Amino acid sequence: MTKAELTIRTVNTPAVLVDLEIARRNIERFQAYADAQGLAVRPHIKTHKLPAVAEMQLKAGAIGITCQKISEAEAMIAGSPKITDVLLTYNIIGLEKLEHLKALARKVTLSVVADSEAVVEGLSGAFASEPAPLPVLVECNTGADRCGVPTPESAAALAQRIAKAPGLVFGGLMTYPPAGGAAAVQSFMSRTKAFIEAAGLTVPVITSGGTPSMMQAAEAPVTTEYRPGTYVYNDRSLVSRGVCGWEDCALTVLATVVSVPAANRAIIDAGSKALTSDLLGLSGYGHVLGRDDIAIDQLSEEHGRLVSKGPIHLNVGDRLRIVPNHACVVTNMVDTVNILERGEISAVWPVSARGCIV
Amino acid sequence: MTKAELTIRTVNTPAVLVDLEIARRNIERFQAYADAQGLAVRPHIKTHKLPAVAEMQLKAGAIGITCQKISEAEAMIAGSPKITDVLLTYNIIGLEKLEHLKALARKVTLSVVADSEAVVEGLSGAFASEPAPLPVLVECNTGADRCGVPTPESAAALAQRIAKAPGLVFGGLMTYPPAGGAAAVQSFMSRTKAFIEAAGLTVPVITSGGTPSMMQAAEAPVTTEYRPGTYVYNDRSLVSRGVCGWEDCALTVLATVVSVPAANRAIIDAGSKALTSDLLGLSGYGHVLGRDDIAIDQLSEEHGRLVSKGPIHLNVGDRLRIVPNHACVVTNMVDTVNILERGEISAVWPVSARGCIV
């Protein structure tokens, strides 16, 4: 591709654009907040899946990265020698995954989580004969009702189980709280910490996460570490919650109008294969920048339907930039993203950790 | 990977499984119906994205394939020399896409659609100096309110515009109707055909599509061709519409239980990155085979939450097979699918046309 083709006026659509200056500003804003609070930052890479953006986060002051799946961690580590500290916030189950986990632990500083004896037993069986023990954090349910032990008592019991397991060391406490859950985190974690310390163990890390409540992280002072993900790009969901403005959205989907079949309706070439069907409680599938009158009311795989209350004033061939409801899932749809610097495309980056589901 | 690892008991999860015998039965069932009705079959490859499955469809009697995007057609053609006839049911806009379209037309029998003069002008400009003219079908809106000209009169006018355009020939009429839209298709298409024939043109093809109504295709006898997509795999959406049963679902997602945090709740390792957020009007995100009591009530990217009215009776490490709401979008999430034959994994196939959005 020649330099001249790398413009937002001619790049083949639909295309995902990532404005690196906005991303850098978003990274630095939260890092400054966390630094002021004495909170370590360990960004979740699920939003960008790009080793180069992880390097930006590390350079700004992050202590390491968070991944959900082993294959994500493997892809990120393969993409950057600067990624040397990884927390996997997932219960690792099964022989094949445990083999990969051992290989990973020999390459980087690794920690994982567990929320049951079954997971602890599997980890211990795999690491009992490894040269170094694996730090395992207890995942706690502070209200999101996904994974996690249900009570401080059960968290403390699992911490002791980990501490006694061959090949493992107790690494701390982890939670993914519901939005606005700082008080619940503070209550659950401080009680759990007291129980664990009473049993003679120390709690080296208490880690929480979630972009929606990240600027209230200090309201749970018991936490030592925060794992924001979406904050690097932001999205329509976060704008709708008042967390940021459109000007803070680093990721947009560039689409072309392919049909204007009615005065108030237009069809774009970005459907659910670009924008995804994630609603996150919203109505419609994204925000067309500069066109507050337009709703994206329907997606099929390759078509997005735009409707306006009045005449839509669009022509076949027009290009639009859309802030998706959820940035993380959009980067998972595409093999490459177009990097924007000073308003123009400066590079095309492969999305290294795309599709890493195992 | 050794043969022993290729089993549904040990394959790394989440994994997409495709039962080839069920797919073959689905292909043959519709082909037999279409043959009996004198209807040509041109399957939409968006569901499988696999050249080898397209070959199964062609072998059963399909006259060619349907693709939505140029890059899908390129990937499919690169994957099989038997794919020699492609209909692109999409308005092709922009210089880069038109260049790819010209290259494609030199390799295979190609036809495309248009629903506006702007699209026709672009195609004509690109093909005016090509050795062979490009057949262009008029896309008609028979009620789905996506793309398509709105009336038989406007369809006939665009057909005449195509017929006069340098580099193009009028190729017929195309529609993607709403479910149960056979009567609307029959009415729109027969009136349009009469207008076009009165103007001295012939209508070589009238093509309709959609799996939900495929067994009622004969209720629109004016159609000459049908483009089913999802029929090859089926999914929960089609079961819920009464189109097929669970035993006809060729695609399943194999997932592992990673947490059982409450008596009635379990978490699996398949989230929206495997099952997608497509609801298609349903409640919940898929059907757990053999467990009618379970609802998948919440997905995050890497977690699926299962809830039961009573005790869920699942343990960490248990494996479940899930029929997703929408099969097509699931194949777009994964780089490979595991091929099932006689109940075991016989091969791992790359999803050749995954992520082809341009």
Kindly report the CATH topology of the largest domain in chain A. Answer: TIM Barrel
**What is the CA-atom radius of gyration of chain A, in angstroms?**
22 Å
Number of helices, counting only DSSP H or I runs of 4 residues or more of chain A: 10
Per CATH, the architecture of the largest domain in chain A is Alpha-Beta Barrel
The first-level CATH class name of the largest domain in chain A? Alpha Beta
Q: Helix content range of the residues of chain A, please?
A: 25-40%
Beta-strand residue percentage of chain A = 25-35%
Tell me about the largest β-sheet of chain A. 9 strands, mixed
Question: pLDDT below 50 for ≥5 consecutive residues: which ranges of chain A?
Answer: none
Whole-number total of structural domains of chain A: 2
Helices and strands in order:
Two copies of one chain form a homodimer.
Chain A lengths: L14 E5 H18 L2 E2 L9 H10 L4 E3 L2 H10 L5 E7 L3 H13 L1 E6 L2 H11 L6 E6 L12 H13 L3 E7 L7 H17 L7 E4 L15 E3 L8 H5 L10 E12 L2 E4 L3 H4 L10 E3 L5 E6 L4 E5 L10 E6 L2 H5 L4 E6 L2 E7 L8
Parallel strand pairs in A: 1-16, 2-9, 3-4, 4-5, 5-6, 6-7, 7-8, 8-9
Antiparallel strand pairs in A: 1-10, 10-11, 10-15, 11-14, 12-15, 13-14, 16-17
